[in-house]
Amino acid sequence: MQNLPRLPDGRLEERFEPAKPPYDPAEAITEANRCIYCVDAPCIRACPTGIDIPTFIRKISTENVKGAARTILSENLLGYSCSRVCPVEALCVGACVYNAWERSPIQIGRLQRFATETALATTPMSALVRPRKAATGKRVALIGAGPASVAAAGWLALDGHTAVVFDRKAFGGGLNALGIAPYKMQGNDAIQEMEWVAALGDVRFELGQGVDAARLAQLVDDFDAVFIGIGLGADSALGVPGEHGPGVYGAVDLVERLKSDPSFAVDAPHGAVVVGGGNTALDIAHELAVLGVTEVTLAYRRGRAAMSGYAHELDAARKDGVRLLEDAVVTEVQRGADGEVTGVRVARAEGGRAVAGTEWTLATSLVAVAIGQGRVTSLVEGLAGVQVDAKGRVVVDAATHRTGHPKVWSGGDCVNGGKEVVNAVQEGKLAARDISRALGGA
């Protein structure tokens, strides 16, 4: 098994307690016994990876925890991290029939964590999934070490192929390790899961190995197949005066720093303003509040009803002190004589646009911008047959995740534009299955 580098001690994320603590065995059995094992199982339909949820819950209720983990991992090799990071309230838990009866839904995510975490503590993942097929001699390169590539690599290894995963960063896992809110899961947990997957077969992670267009073309020549799971690009900018300089961060970059850099500290004596209305904005606002920033304001250019972030995430952030400022557009970042952030100019918005003459100043020491991310799909534009759509997403066949190039597949955020970890995992699984068919290994 490949031993991957761990994130150093002393990171800010270590100060966070889990929002959903793990169940002990008695709690898990009690919760599992509440499940009525619906015939039509709406929870299964709501799971992008199609886990047989009633079956794994029944196995927990009979104390067959390894069997429960096998049921989960047979569909989702990253079932451990998905149990912690999935927005279950909008997926399986949200589909639970108990909701219609105004009763507390089954806590499927916490049960899934109990099963996978308990089983994997004593049993290698290779003993909880189907046996590996005979080695095929085929080699697949995977670009980016996020959840789509990690999942694909695991399935490819089980099919007997060699999987080599390249990532430009020193730590693997992509956003699963470096972008998930630390009260959901911390980075080293995602790295541990990568090691479990690597032990399924011939999987190797080449970290600190950036791939440019020329290198990608060479990998397409050298390997039997290539999977592109490069995620998204840098945080988008506001395009307002004063935003470039200390004290203003892209939200994704800020989350990564508090999760990975032990030298990083949040200094915001006059509060923080987070700009955006999506889940990344909600996460970083919530994180700053938990870290003790006294005034955290979430400024969104429309009303709450238009926010793309999940309602349960907003409610949780507000409980910890985050203030939502609706119909507000930041028009300028103000700085003092030494260049430090002192405030932002905010205008009232109508239809998402600033209304002239309605500006006021909001004091703050830190600004986090969470209005989206750029695309990095220019990497693939030189490959014949690989298309990118008007939104900068790699175009694939939805059933197989094939691109127009006969040796190239793709999945994850660079294809779906930024969905959930579980969507990336499913796309990696679909691609791996089709790669194996193409290579004659399935």
Labels describing this entry:
442 residues, alpha/beta, Fumarate Reductase Iron-sulfur Protein, Chain B, domain 2, FAD/NAD(P)-binding domain, 3 domains, five-stranded parallel β-sheet, 33% helix, globular
Secondary structure tally, helices: 16
CATH architecture of the largest domain: 3-Layer(bba) Sandwich
Helix share bin:
25-40%
Q: From the helix content, strand content and strand pairing, which structural class follows?
A: alpha/beta
Rg on CA atoms, Å: 22 Å
Describe this structure in words.
Helix content is 33%, strand content 15%. It contains 16 helices and 14 strands. It has helices at 25-32, 42-46, 53-61, 65-73, 79-85, 92-95, 108-120, 147-158, 175-178, 187-198, 213-222, 251-260, 279-290, 311-319, 413-416, 421-439; strands at residues 139-143, 162-167, 203-207, 225-228, 248-250, 272-275, 296-299, 322-325, 328-335, 341-350, 353-354, 360-363, 366-369, 408-410. The protein has a 5-stranded parallel β-sheet with strand order 3-2-1-4-14, with helices on both faces. A 5-stranded parallel β-sheet has the order 5-13-6-7-8. α12 (251-260) packs across α13.
